[in-house]
Structures are given as structure tokens and as C-alpha cells.
Design a protein that fits this description.
Length: 391
């Protein structure tokens, strides 16, 4: 069983508040990821190798860091920036209209005018805001739980009630009733001796927090995935003047007249088609980044595919009535991971189906408690620097 290293004290509420206030989104994400890991490891002192919500949050936050840092955007942009047909058409049209620019110069001018990378910046910002939003709420409650109720030697209803009183009643996204229920189930799991009963209570709590989290994150997830389609039309005027410095004003005036007559010039039509295709490719790129999750550097999940493998024997069949009821609500294929691949990650029900089966499938996987970073990287990030090496 992994043990929490003596050099890694249990994060406090003050630690969570300090990390959430870090202004640099990259450093903040790295510190959030490491803090989730430390919270997750602290829990197993009482629960054993039963995944808690922070266990999965560690790896989800680490994956979010790739989008926040935009570390793979350059490679993916080269692969997805636009289709060969769209590029060929816009080059042929521009050259037919008299531009002396080389094909690559034409494509680069179109990319500068339409700035598809702005969508990548917007996706990065949305993911960073979501990462902070969840951590400063749920990470804080885990730290508070560990500081107040976790070390109770016997079940004390007044203790867990006092903890839950500080959580807002009502449904997500504004209420915290799901968090109240989740921490009551975590607390109950501390005092049961039966391994299956403990595993089911832990899974129930994980799913309750997961549902709260995903409901809260809905705006940021939708914004990140739809970033390529947000904003005003591209500045075609700048493109015209850049490609046709001598005849640009005349061409633009003619385009305006045709638009007023409800028509479109050939240049307008080709540029609009190129822009649509480019935005579609950027959406695919953003989706590719967000639809992959690497767990503990060993398991790489495609969120659009079914969760692989079988549920652990201890959770193959569910006895706990409350857990069965919640699974019936969020998992359309009970006791099976078939059909768990999310068709649309922006759809809450699709996400929860995948998450429910992922939580259940990897519930007793000890590798998930492995450190997400090296000791040197941890030292660098805790000093406010972005570490070297693969993150």
C-alpha cells in the first residue's frame, strides 16, 4: 500500500487558498495537480487503496495542464490547420485574381487575418478557469474534511454534521447538497470493516462529487470545445489589403456593393469556405486535446471510446441501494462499460456515463496514487517556477 511521505504534509485549507490565488495559470495548475495528489494520498491512511475523488482529479488536472500550457498546439496546428482542398482553392483563387504571393504566403496571410490560434488561447483560458474553479471549492473541502473529521476515532454524528453545515444546501451548480452527501459517505467509510461496503461507500461519494463537479464545469467545458466557433467574422478587409496592396481598396468596395445586393464575390465565397474548414479543424484539434486522459502515466484513455477492461470483483455487483440508484441515473448500461464512450464531451450526461464507469473500473488501481511529478519538478513548481522535463 502506498504511504504518504513524511516530507509531504497533508495540505491545509490555507494551502488550497494560497494555490488558488496563484496568478500564473500554468504554475497554478501544476500546484493544483500536486495538491490533489497529496490530498488523495492522505485519504488512504484510513480508507486503504480505494480511490477517492482527488485520486482521479490528480490525473484530470495533469491532463488539463497540457491544454493550459498549449504544449501540443503547435504540432496539432500543423496537422489540422486546414484541409489540402481548402488551401488549394484559396491559393488558386487569390492567384487567379492577380496576387503575386507564393502559395505558403497566401495561407499564412489567411491564418494571420482569421487568427485561428485565438480559439486555442480561448480554450486554454477556459480550461484554466475551470481547473481553478473546481479546486478552490472541492479541493478546499477535502482539506477541511481532513483537518476536522478525518481523524475521529469513532463515528460522531455531531462532527460530520458540523462539517456539512458549512456547505450550501440545494442543487448544483449553486448548491452543495451533493458535496454534503458525498462527505457523509466518505465519513461512513472510515468506520466500516467490510471491504465491499467501504468500496461502495467510496464509489458513491466519488460519483456524487463527480456529478457536482461536472455540473459546475459545464460552462467552461462547452466554451473550450466551442472556442473555434465563438467571436465576430474574420477581418476579411485586412486579408484583401494584405494580398492585393494596389487593388485592395477597389476590390473591397466591390465586395461591399455585392454584399448590399445580397450577393457574394468569388473571393468572399472562397475565403468563407476556407474559414469554415479552418474553424472545423481547430475544433477537432481542441477536442483531441480534451478527449484524452492519461492515468498514472500507464493508462491512456480516449474519452470517446468505451472504458476498457472489467470492473474489479469487489464492485462487479452493487449492493448499496443509494449507489445503485445513482448509477441507474448516470449510467445507461448498468454493470457494464459498454456504450460508455462519450459521443459529445460537452454533453453532461455523456460525460457522466464515461466518468461513472471509469471511477468504478479503476477504483482499486494502486498506480493512481503514484506521484504525478518527480521530486525535482515538485520543488520547482512549489517555488513558483515551471519545471523542466515532461509534465
Amino acid at each position: 500500500m502506498p504511504t504518504l511521505a513524511a516530507s509531504a504534509p497533508v495540505p491545509t485549507v490555507d494551502d488550497v487558498d494560497r494555490i488558488a490565488a496563484v496568478p500564473d495559470p500554468i504554475v497554478r495548475n501544476l500546484q493544483i495537480t500536486q495538491c490533489y495528489h497529496e490530498l488523495a494520498r492522505a485519504m488512504i491512511a484510513r480508507t486503504g487503496i480505494n480511490a477517492n475523488w482527488c485520486t482521479f482529479a490528480t490525473w484530470a488536472s495533469k491532463q488539463a495542464g497540457q491544454t493550459i500550457r498549449k504544449q501540443d498546439f503547435a504540432r496539432l496546428f500543423e496537422a489540422h490547420s486546414s484541409s489540402v482542398d481548402a488551401d488549394t482553392t484559396i491559393v488558386a483563387t487569390v492567384q487567379a485574381l492577380g496576387s503575386r504571393r507564393a502559395p505558403q504566403e497566401i495561407i499564412e496571410a489567411a491564418q494571420q487575418a482569421f487568427n485561428p490560434r485565438a480559439a486555442l488561447d480561448q480554450a486554454s483560458d477556459a480550461v484554466a478557469r475551470g481547473n481553478k474553479k473546481v479546486f478552490e471549492e472541492i479541493g478546499r473541502e477535502f482539506a477541511r474534511f481532513l483537518a476536522t473529521c478525518f481523524n475521529d476515532s469513532s463515528h460522531d454524528e455531531a462532527s460530520i454534521a458540523a462539517f456539512c453545515e458549512q456547505l450550501r444546501p440545494g442543487s448544483a451548480p449553486h448548491g452543495q447538497a451533493l458535496l454534503q452527501r458525498a462527505f457523509k459517505h466518505y465519513y461512513a467509510a472510515l468506520f466500516v470493516s467490510d471491504a465491499k461496503a467501504r468500496a461502495e461507500l467510496m464509489l458513491l461519494a466519488n460519483l456524487e462529487i463527480g456529478l457536482h463537479e461536472q455540473t459546475r464545469l459545464q460552462p467552461e467545458i462547452a466554451e473550450a470545445l466551442n472556442a473555434a466557433f465563438v467571436g465576430a467574422p474574420a477581418p476579411t478587409f485586412r486579408l484583401v489589403m494584405g494580398l492585393f496592396p494596389i487593388r485592395g481598396v477597389w476590390m473591397w468596395s466591390r465586395m461591399i456593393v455585392l454584399r448590399l445586393l445580397g450577393r457574394r464575390s468569388l473571393f468572399d465565397q472562397v475565403v468563407e469556405a476556407w474559414a469554415r474548414e479552418t474553424r472545423r479543424q481547430v475544433r477537432l484539434m481542441i477536442t483531441e486535446l480534451m478527449m484524452t486522459l492519461e492515468l498514472s502515466n500507464r493508462v491512456r484513455l480516449r474519452l470517446g471510446d468505451d472504458v476498457p477492461g472489467d470492473f474489479p470483483p469487489i464492485l462487479a455487483y452493487i449492493d448499496l441501494p443509494d449507489l445503485r440508484a445513482l448509477l441507474a441515473d448516470v449510467d445507461p448500461t448498468p454493470d457494464s462499460a459498454m456504450g460508455s464512450g462519450a459521443r459529445d464531451w460537452a454533453n453532461l450526461r455523456d460525460r457522466m456515463h464515461f466518468i461513472a464507469d471509469m471511477f468504478r473500473r479503476y477504483h482499486d488501481t494502486s498506480d493512481l496514487f503514484d506521484p504525478p511529478f518527480t521530486s525535482a519538478q515538485i520543488a520547482a513548481m512549489k517555488s513558483g517556477r515551471v519545471p523542466d522535463g515532461r509534465l
